[in-house]
């Protein structure tokens, strides 16, 4: 016969933590001390040197497994396609940084060479990224506005505004690389985990809005001064609308035509991507057409259209960074280093999962750090990656970073040989291309209704990050968003959803009693689930929720009982209450007794669940056992430990039995080392599972039948029982 696979039966002893430890011997493990970890970190042998060298130069690993016949053609096609897109985006994104167009070309060449050797992702396209370019542009325009530098910086004297801005950008890029390299060497690539998808989505959407507005001056052909800092976006819009009547119609019409055509063809590419061998490079096609039309009709001289202009046919000589710029931009460079790395790492993870290989976050930091240091020395724009450009590299058949190095060669050819052909290109065309490529980031706004329905706290993070980044600037907006996100984490752990559990009838499964119909909740037992770590910030919240669950305050009950006991002693002393030895002993009113009796040496135990004499009232306690489910408690700190101990003692002192179930053994060890246990709180209250504790409770307090309940009510008509030792 076929065995039953949808059920199981287990026969085993009932386990407390103590009995489980006695019956099952643990493996003795030596836990490493901090000194052991330090020694291991600095221990050096040939194998470790080899692994370190291979990890620092990942190209050695993937070049050994390169399949020339299968991958080379795809890498060549991908490299050419990506190179053409990188040229156009480099020119466009340099405008976001308020730099001459050719510095964007440098970002598509110098960093790519370094990443080819040091990067672990095989599919991302390294180069300019619009959000990072915009953040660089905010610093550049702040330090070197249109009227010249606002601060006296040594080394910038006698330079033109473009050269000054290029020097500031290069030094900033160099500093971004230093931060990234430092974090990589210190193995702190984990910092990106604090940038949640929700925060990044809100931040990049706000950046897209900034980018869109920053490109309007090129679309309308207006001269708008650079603004930076809080409310800069408002000042830019104000400047645009005050000049709107001076719009250059040729710029506007050219931009609209380019946007419509590029958007339409991109939709065709997306819809028929399975049938097209490679996506139609519409941006490149429209750029060539726009260059030809602009040159033929002399847009620059005849119609006042702002064009790209002179593109040098050689690279600039490397320069040392400006230390004074370092001092002025250090606060700005760090968030840029984080943002640049976070975006590139997120894109790299997508392709690593898709193509089944591993990327190393710390090595990626090192790769981008060295790339930006090298690029900064040659006045390159700060580099990261762009999703659209990486998508081109992957979708056109790119298998490795050979496609990346080929794209850099295409950029090199254009820069040194045919860059002059791009000189008549209108900047409005570049602005139009940038705006069309913002579609993906702007469409992230559709996440807001979904987040509001599914997780309102995440929705608040998105909205706050978005609004702060819009109105305060991207740097402050990122800081505000990160602060709100960390507060949300604290809020979730400080105010989690506690619940009272009940047994699903016929099983050993326990769920929230509010969610199910067919449940069993033993009389006199409360099961309270704590779904978060217990620490100084939420211990009071847990105590409050626990009191709500049981329906009474044990400290108040204890005080009431002490007052009642004090009153009983006074009544006995006055002779208004006597002790009669029955079985068991009871205290009764002394209406028939003439002589007072001295009860000072008589041990008396009061049955608090019975009716008390002399109109003495104490709030009833309708539970005898309280079970705390610690299965989701990952740690307890010292402050919370003290609060927990106090709370447990309050229940124990009013005769409520406490049980803690499914507690992590390491937490129990910590409780032992912190002297948590004493004559009131014992290790025997810990049970391996919730069902073990419930079976133990039912054994100690068997459910009463109807006749037994009636008998108990009759017995409780006796007011107070006394315990006498004979």
Please specify the SSE layout and strand pairing:
Blueprint lengths: L16 H7 L10 H9 L3 H11 L2 H6 L3 H29 L5 H6 L2 H9 L7 E2 L2 H14 L17 H25 L11 H24 L11 H11 L6 H23 L10 H16 L1 H5 L19 H33 L5 H17 L6 E2 L1 H9 L6 H17 L8 H10 L2 H4 L4 H8 L1 H17 L1 H21 L4 E6 L5 E3 L6 E2 L4 E5 L9 H12 L3 H21 L2 E4 L4 E5 L35 E5 L8 H15 L4 E5 L3 H9 L12 E2 L2 H11 L5 H10 L4 E3 L4
Parallel strand pairs: 6-9, 9-10, 10-11
Antiparallel strand pairs: 1-2, 3-4, 3-5, 3-6, 7-8, 8-12
GO molecular function: secondary active sulfate transmembrane transporter activity
Subcellular location: Membrane
Organism: Astyanax mexicanus (Blind cave fish)
Describe this entry's structure for a reader:
It is a multi-pass membrane protein. The chain crosses the membrane at residues 72-95, 101-118, 125-144, 172-195, 216-237, 249-266, 278-297, 333-353, 365-382, 402-422, 460-491. It is found in: Membrane. The structure is a single chain. The protein has 726 residues and is α/β, with parallel strands linked by helices. The protein contains 29 helices and twelve strands. The strands form three sheets. Strands 3, 4, 5, 6, 9, 10 and 11 form a seven-stranded mixed β-sheet that branches. A hairpin with a 5-residue loop joins strand 3 and strand 4 (510-512). The radius of gyration is 37 Å and the shape is elongated. Residues 581-603 and 717-726 have low confidence and may be disordered.
Q: Segments where pLDDT lies below 50 for 5+ residues?
A: 581-603, 717-726
Shape: elongated
User: Rg, please?
Assistant: 37 Å
Distance between the termini: 65 Å
What integer is the average pLDDT? 84
DSSP summary: helix tally = 29
Secondary-structure class: alpha/beta
Task: Provide the β-strand percentage band.
Answer: 5-15%
Largest sheet: 7 strands, mixed
Question: What portion of residues is helical?
Answer: 55-70%
The strand count comes to 12
């Amino acid at each position: 016969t076929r065995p039953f696979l949808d059920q199981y039966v287990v026969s085993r002893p009932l386990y407390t933590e103590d009995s489980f430890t006695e019956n099952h011997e643990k493996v003795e493990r030596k836990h490493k001390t901090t000194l052991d970890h330090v020694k291991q970190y600095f221990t050096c042998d040939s194998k470790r040197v080899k692994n370190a060298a291979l990890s620092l130069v990942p190209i050695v690993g993937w070049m050994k497994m390169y399949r020339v016949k299968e991958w080379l053609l795809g890498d060549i096609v991908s490299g050419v396609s990506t190179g053409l897109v990188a040229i156009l985006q480099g020119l466009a994104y340099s405008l976001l940084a308020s730099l001459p167009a050719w510095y964007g070309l440098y970002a598509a060449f110098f960093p790519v060479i370094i990443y080819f050797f040091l990067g672990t992702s095989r599919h991302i396209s390294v180069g300019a990224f619009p959000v990072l370019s915009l953040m660089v542009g905010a610093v550049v325009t702040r330090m070197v506005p249109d009227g010249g530098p606002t601060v006296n910086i040594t080394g910038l004297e006698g330079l033109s505004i473009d050269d000054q801005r290029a020097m500031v950008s290069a030094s900033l890029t160099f500093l971004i690389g230093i931060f990234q390299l430092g974090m990589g060497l210190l193995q702190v690539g984990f910092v990106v985990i604090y940038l949640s998808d929700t925060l990044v989505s809100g931040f990049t959407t706000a950046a897209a809005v900034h980018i869109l507005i920053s490109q309007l001056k090129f679309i309308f052909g207006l001269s708008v001064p650079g603004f930076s800092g809080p409310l800069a976006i408002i000042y830019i819009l104000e400047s645009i609308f005050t000049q709107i009547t001076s719009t250059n119609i040729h710029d506007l019409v050219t931009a609209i035509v380019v946007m419509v055509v590029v958007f339409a063809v991109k939709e065709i590419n997306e819809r028929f991507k399975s049938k097209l061998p490679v996506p139609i490079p519409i941006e490149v096609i429209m750029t060539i057409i726009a260059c030809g039309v602009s040159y033929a009709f002399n847009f620059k001289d005849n119609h006042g259209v702002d064009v790209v202009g002179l593109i040098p046919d050689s690279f600039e000589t490397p320069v040392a960074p400006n230390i004074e710029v370092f001092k002025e931009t250090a606060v700005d460079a760090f968030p840029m280093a984080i943002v640049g790395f976070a975006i590139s790492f997120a894109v790299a993870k997508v392709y690593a999962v898709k193509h089944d290989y591993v990327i190393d976050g710390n090595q990626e930091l090192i790769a981008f750090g060295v790339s930006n240091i090298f690029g900064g020395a040659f006045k390159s724009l700060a580099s990261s990656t762009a999703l659209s450009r990486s998508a081109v590299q992957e979708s056109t058949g790119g298998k490795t970073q050979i496609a990346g190095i080929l794209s850099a060669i295409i950029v090199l050819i254009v820069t040194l040989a045919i860059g002059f052909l791009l000189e008549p290109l209108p900047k409005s065309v570049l602005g139009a291309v940038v705006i069309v490529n913002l579609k993906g980031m702007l469409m992230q706004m559709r996440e807001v209704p979904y987040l509001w329905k599914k997780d309102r706290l995440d929705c608040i993070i998105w909205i706050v990050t978005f609004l702060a980044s819009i109105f305060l600037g991207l740097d402050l907006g990122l800081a505000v968003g990160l602060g709100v996100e960390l507060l949300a984490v604290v809020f979730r752990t400080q105010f989690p959803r506690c619940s009272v559990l009940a047994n699903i009838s016929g099983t050993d499964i326990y769920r929230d009693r509010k969610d199910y119909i067919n449940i069993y909740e033993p009389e006199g037992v409360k099961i309270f689930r704590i779904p978060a770590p217990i620490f100084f910030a939420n211990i009071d919240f847990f105590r409050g929720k626990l009191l709500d669950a049981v329906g009474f305050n044990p400290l108040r009950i204890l005080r009431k009982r002490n007052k009642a006991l004090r009153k009983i002693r006074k009544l006995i002393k006055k002779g208004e209450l006597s002790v009669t030895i029955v079985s068991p002993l009871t205290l009764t009113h002394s209406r028939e007794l003439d002589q007072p009796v001295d009860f000072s040496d008589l041990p008396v135990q009061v049955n608090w669940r019975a009716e008390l004499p002399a109109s003495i009232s104490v709030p009833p306690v309708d539970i005898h056992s309280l079970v705390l489910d610690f299965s989701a408690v990952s740690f307890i700190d010292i402050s919370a430990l003290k609060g927990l101990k106090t709370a447990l003692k309050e229940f124990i002192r009013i005769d409520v039995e406490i049980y803690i179930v499914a507690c992590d053994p390491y937490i129990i060890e910590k409780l032992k080392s912190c002297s948590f246990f004493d004559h009131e709180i014992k290790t025997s209250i810990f049970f391996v599972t919730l069902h073990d504790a419930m079976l133990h409770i039912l054994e100690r307090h068997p459910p009463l039948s109807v006749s037994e309940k009636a008998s108990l009510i009759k017995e409780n008509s006796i007011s107070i029982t006394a315990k006498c030792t004979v």
